[in-house]
């Protein structure tokens, strides 16, 4: 994604194609891999080279003639591309009369009086990308600035920033407990700071990376991890990890949780997470619609809600699975009504398809493995003509409930708040009331393609959250392939895929978006827009090492002729774009090392769970850099350097 700000997800070789949305297996063990020394077989990509006669004709995609397709409108490419979805947030004042919406597309916070419909704006610095936000009961709000590494404190009365405090390299989630704020960071830090804007931050803990949201649970902090969809229970007093939990697999199909888009308080002392579920079965990549499904649930990627409840008698954290939520593609937000009788989930992936619901209102969170489909309306021919709550004008990205149980929805493009004009959100006679927030258009066709439900209930971002990777190993026609990250790794690094068999982004548009995901044919301007956005996804901001001397020693080893890492991992992207046999079972493209600390597991089939494992027996030995004779201390120095990239 082209964004001039923000990171997140997958693919460089096999990435955009297979990982972008394959049915999968996070463990390589049940998947057969290539025979030692054999080169990975190239996949046939329609529309490129000798396979051109197999290219799908222009027109609708392959899921089925009745499947709804996104409308991308006139093709436009932003010079300063919008960030990937997932950061925008909405919170209301205690009385429900003032809304605070973070707008990472325009680097601002909207302060909106829902009674007078008056909107004011807090302008932030370019590239700040405001994300999660909390109020503090003192007419202040505190906003995480994702790309600035800071928390901004805003006086709501004057709509001005009264403090900016650095907290970590890449802050994500924020929660308030009395007069203390807690921030969860991608780099694994948990930071506490006073709500008083003059107070200084303190690092409470440094632990596992890829942290996302944070919720207060008595004497504990519940912290979600983005890619694994795990929830960690952290002791508030000292930052110690107490326990962890993840939703169990579903039934015989081994449907597994991944990508926790949003976590909020459950209302019963725990947390509720809206996340995705991936099918671990083999995906036949030569079959049409390999990743897609015309049914509300049952494709490669589904949406689920799981609550996590701490127990009072032990340190355990108990996951409580709820039913799958059908057609909720790219579930960027979830909210609980004040009474606890209703939940709302935002499906931003449906934002460019008028007949698909973006706001899923749920009266009861069931349990089990059933699929909870959204309310639908059909004409006499059975064609879908609308969703239960009516269409929201724009792409929804955040939701909140007012005290009277009515819903407020924030749309990013065009920027606006939408209010249900009744106390009963289920009323079919009431519509949405719109409060326009103005600002320049941030519509970008490449961004839209990447984030849209293709018609097969899956989107590119489903497996590349934030433009990064999903941390999974997928079983693609009995070949294990690790999703590669797209964050800062694509520009100038063609050919793509682990096998180097995808010469251009157009390959992905044809083979993946159309054939595998069931999307419509993309014309040349649309493909160019997708190329522009994807190749401009910024590299992630990585936390600096505690021991910089170790980093420098590792850098010297990395660049030394005797070790030989920089012979292949060279240049700005730390790759020479070549395919090399490094003793790991075949000839594969040299991957970029940018953001490596956030990309476990490693190697083409995920066989190395950690960087230390990569320097063990599974890593190719001296065919993969001359590292066998390095001491334990030298390997640790080298890892410290690699984790800083």
Task: Outline the structure in words.
There is one protein chain. The protein is mainly beta. Among the domains are: 87-200, YVTN repeat-like/Quinoprotein amine dehydrogenase (Methylamine Dehydrogenase, Chain H, 7 Propeller), CATH 2.130.10; 544-645, Cytochrome Bc1 Complex, Chain D, domain 2 (Orthogonal Bundle), CATH 1.10.760. A hairpin with a 2-residue loop joins β31 (473-476) and β32 (479-482).
Instruction: Write the CATH architecture name of the domain at 87-200.
Output: 7 Propeller
Instruction: Please estimate the helix content.
Output: under 10%
Question: First CA to last CA: what distance?
Answer: 20 Å
Net shape: globular
Q: β content, as a range?
A: 25-35%
Structural class: mainly beta
Number of helices: 7
Biggest pleated-sheet summary: 5 strands, mixed
Q: Which fold name fills CATH's third level, the topology of the domain at 87-200?
A: Methylamine Dehydrogenase, Chain H
Within CATH, the superfamily of the domain at 87-200 carries the name: YVTN repeat-like/Quinoprotein amine dehydrogenase
Number of strands: 34
Could you report the average pLDDT, rounded to the nearest whole number? 86
For the record, the CATH class of the domain at 87-200 is Mainly Beta
Strand order across the largest sheet: 17-18-19-20-24
Rounded Rg: 24 Å
Q: Unreliable segments (pLDDT under 50, ≥5 consecutive)?
A: 1-60, 377-388
């Amino acid at each position: 994604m082209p964004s001039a700000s923000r990171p997140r997800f997958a693919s460089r070789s096999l990435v955009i194609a297979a990982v972008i949305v394959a049915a999968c297996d996070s463990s390589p063990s049940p998947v057969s891999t290539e025979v030692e020394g054999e080169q990975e077989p190239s996949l046939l990509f329609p529309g490129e080279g000798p396979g051109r006669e197999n290219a799908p004709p222009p027109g609708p995609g392959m899921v089925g003639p009745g499947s709804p397709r996104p409308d991308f409108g006139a093709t436009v490419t932003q010079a300063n591309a919008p960030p990937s979805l997932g950061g925008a947030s909405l919170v209301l004042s205690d009385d429900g009369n003032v809304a605070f919406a973070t707008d990472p597309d325009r680097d601002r916070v909207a302060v909106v009086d829902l009674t007078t419909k008056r909107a004011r704006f807090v302008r932030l610095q370019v590239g700040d990308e405001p994300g999660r936000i909390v109020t503090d009961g003192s007419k202040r709000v505190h906003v995480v600035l994702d790309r600035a590494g800071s928390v901004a404190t805003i006086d709501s009365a004057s709509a001005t920033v009264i403090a900016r405090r650095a907290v970590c390299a890449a802050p994500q989630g924020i929660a308030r407990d009395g007069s203390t704020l807690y921030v969860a960071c991608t780099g694994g830090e948990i930071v506490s700071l006073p709500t008083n804007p003059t107070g200084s931050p303190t690092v409470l803990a440094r632990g596992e990376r890829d942290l996302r949201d944070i919720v207060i649970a008595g004497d504990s902090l519940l912290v979600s991890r983005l890619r694994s969809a795990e929830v960690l229970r952290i002791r508030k007093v000292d930052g110690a990890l107490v326990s962890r939990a993840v939703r169990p697999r579903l039934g015989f199909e081994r449907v597994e949780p991944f990508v926790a888009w949003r976590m909020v308080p459950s209302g019963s002392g725990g947390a509720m997470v809206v996340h995705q579920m991936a099918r671990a079965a083999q995906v036949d990549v030569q079959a049409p619609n390999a990743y897609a499904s015309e049914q509300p649930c049952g494709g490669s990627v589904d949406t689920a809600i799981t609550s996590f409840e701490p127990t009072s008698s032990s340190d355990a954290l108990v996951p409580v699975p709820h039913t799958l939520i059908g057609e909720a593609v790219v579930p960027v937000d979830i909210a609980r009504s004040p009474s606890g009788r209703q939940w709302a989930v935002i499906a931003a992936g449906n934002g460019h398809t008028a007949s698909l619901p973006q706001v899923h209102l749920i009266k009861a969170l069931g349990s089990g493995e059933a699929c909870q489909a959204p309310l639908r309306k059909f004409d006499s021919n059975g064609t879908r003509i609308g969703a239960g709550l009516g269409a929201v004008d724009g792409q929804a990205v955040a939701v909140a409930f007012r005290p009277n149980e009515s819903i407020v929805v924030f749309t990013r493009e065009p920027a606006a708040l939408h209010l249900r004009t009744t106390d009963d959100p289920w009323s079919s006679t009431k519509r949405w009331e719109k409060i326009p927030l103005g600002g320049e258009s941030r519509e970008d066709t490449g961004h839209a393609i990447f984030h849209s439900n293709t018609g097969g209930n899956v989107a590119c971002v489903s497996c590349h959250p934030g433009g990064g990777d999903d941390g999974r190993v997928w079983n693609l026609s009995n070949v294990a392939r690790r999703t590669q990250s797209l964050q800062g790794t694509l520009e100038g690094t063609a050919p793509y895929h682990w096998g180097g068999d995808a010469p251009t982004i157009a390959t992905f548009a044809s083979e993946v978006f159309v054939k595998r995901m069931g999307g419509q044919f993309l014309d040349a301007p649309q493909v160019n827009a997708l190329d522009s956005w994807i190749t401009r996804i910024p590299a992630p901001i990585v936390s600096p090492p505690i021991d910089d001397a170790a980093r420098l020693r590792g850098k010297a080893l990395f660049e030394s002729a005797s070790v030989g890492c920089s012979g292949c991992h060279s240049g700005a992207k730390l790759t020479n774009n070549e395919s090399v046999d490094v003793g790991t079972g075949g000839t594969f493209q040299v991957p970029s090392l940018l953001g490596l600390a956030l990309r476990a597991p490693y190697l083409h089939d995920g066989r190395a769970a950690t960087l230390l494992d990569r320097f063990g027996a599974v890593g190719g030995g001296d065919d993969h850099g001359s590292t066998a004779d390095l001491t334990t201390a030298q390997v640790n120095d080298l890892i410290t350097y690699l984790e800083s990239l």
